[in-house]
Amino acid sequence: MSKILIIEDEESIADLEKDYLELSDFQVHIENSGNGGLEAALAEDFDLVILDLMLPGMDGFEVCRKIREKKDIPILMVSAKKDDIDKIRGLGLGADDYMTKPFSPSELVARVKAHMARYDRLVGSAQKRNDIVEIRGIKIDKTARRVWIDGEERTFTTKEFDLLTFLAENPNHVYTKEELFREIWDMDSIGDIATVTVHIKKIREKIEFDTSKPQYIETIWGVGYRFKV
Ligand code: CA
Question: What are 39-87's pLDDT values in tens digits?
Fold first, then answer.
């Protein structure tokens, strides 16, 4: 469920916004002051902030600027004065949208939804850029160099990771130990094809349920190894 932070000192307005947003299945938290709002915005993971301009203590301009220094979540600024909107724009605070009071709650909800969808697309596409290899229960994030087995993360050394990834990316292909050694270790490496055997053993201990009956990396006797699909 998406979480929204309302920073608003007028209780009746905050409650009205909250009611409408909750009807649209958002989870809502209210802060009544600029300082409290800023603190909450930085401490918790909200998906969007609705920020009133005139607040006791720190005003909305300052809160917006301070949130922007740390986070890029959508900020929707609200003010009772039309002139303020020009001021917000002029200051280039990084607010994503502006609304003047009074506004209809349904308009607020519509804008919130539009910004969340836009933000999800941006963040979502950033995540998709990670290069992921997924085979049966194994998930390899090549970008972050992390591996999960049945949803549980396991740690691999650099060469174990490279070897596992290479085999998983070339399934059903039998590689000799010599080929694997050439592929993963550079020519100057100290070691020989026995290194490959040792690494395969270590990888199996981390990915196989029963290392005597490997489900992923198969030994092809007299030839080498193959990643089964
Ligand atoms: Ca106010």
Answer: 999 999 899 999 999 999 899 999 999 999 988 889 999 998 877 777 7
**CA-CA distance, 216 to 229, in Å (whole number)?**
7
Give residue 114's Cα distance to chain centre: 20
d(CA 114, CA 121): 11
User: What is the distance in A from the centroid of ligand 1 to the CA of 67?
Assistant: 18
**CA 84 – CA 90 distance, rounded (Å):** 10
Helical packing angle, 105-128 and 11-23, nearest 10° = 60
Q: Where are the beta strands (DSSP E) in the chain?
A: 3-7, 27-31, 48-52, 75-79, 97-100, 132-135, 138-141, 146-149, 152-154, 175-176, 217-220, 224-227
CA of 117 to the centre of ligand 1 (A): 27
Distance 25 CA to ligand 1 centre (A): 25
Among 21, 60, 17, CA closest to 38: 60
The rounded Å distance from CA 205 to ligand 1 centre is 60
Ligand 1 geometric centre to CA of 199 (Å)? 63
